[in-house]
Give the backbone structure.
Amino acid sequence: MMSAEGRQEMTAPAPAEGGEGKLSFREACPEDEMLLLSWTNDPETRKNSFNSGPVSPETHHVWFSRRLSDKNCVILIFFRGDEPAGQVRLECENDTARISYSVDREHRGKGYGKEMVSLAIGYALTGRPEIKAFRAEVKPDNIPSLRIFGSLGFTEVSSDDKNVCFILVKPEKLPK
């Protein structure tokens, strides 16, 4: 995977309608801790999280430090121009990468969530050839995320009143 200093300029194959189609990204670094904490504690993000309570700076620091040092985890920070637009986290276990993401409140509704997830999948497939599947878990009332994963070719494999689980088996081509 690439260094935290550089950004990759990449464009999703087919940006969602309303999306401007060009995001850059880089791997998270220690300096991103407060940015990620602010996104984590955004009210909409908390509402769509399985643990919906606010996250303290101390708890977040421990969590973030562990994720940065975990070779099986990558957090990608996405930018629209110079503005941070959101993040995607990939946590790899054996041959499966679990995906979670959030979009900055100022950038919601522009198609960036779909573009970010698509780019993160491409990044993972390039850097981690052992990955055979991607997994996402979404609350049933998180309609934007349900649509994003469905539109990218993920298959719903289970659901109940608290959780919808999606799987994407290693695609032959990148999702659009």
Summary: The chain has a mean pLDDT of 86. The beta strands are 8-10, 23-27, 73-80, 83-93, 96-103, 133-138, 155-159, 164-169.
